[in-house]
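Let us practice reading a record.
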Amino acid sequence: MGISRYLQSTRNLVGSGLGILALVLHALSVAGRYWPLVVAGSYLAGALATPPDRRVALRAPEPAEELRTSLTRLTTTVGQHEARLPLSALEHVRRTVAMLDELLTVPVDLAAVPENWFTVHTVIGVDLPMAVLTFLNQPRWHAAGRLLPGVRPGEMTLLDELEAIEARVAAVSDAVYHESLRRAAGEL
């Protein structure tokens, strides 16, 4: 497997191309009697000067069960700190979690468009926890907007973030719903 991979690599192809060019120069009597050295040197120069092939290791997307576990963990965290969160923020979180939970019941439809899966994965793993935990980790006087004239209260920032997250999840939910309708109409 390693040899076939090297034979198809960019380094080998560039080196081989330069080696063939050196053979053409020999055929034109330019390389002289040292032509084997010119061919080998040309191949080595091309193979060593070419950067290695980049291999990007893509991770398989997390299964829906793992995302559901992360969502449950987030819901538990929000439930534990319910008293510190504003009521409107709790409503945003509950609506968003309900939409995400519903989306995770149809993982095939969700995975049909990779951008939708990525959005759900990012919202569950990064955006929603970061918004809530950032609010919970700031001093209470800053969260309520007291003692800092001219500074936007943390509560308003949290609400803006949660509204944006909820809008993104709603857009994915609509897209998945329309995709499943389109697929169902195509099967009829």
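A brief commentary: The radius of gyration is 29 Å.
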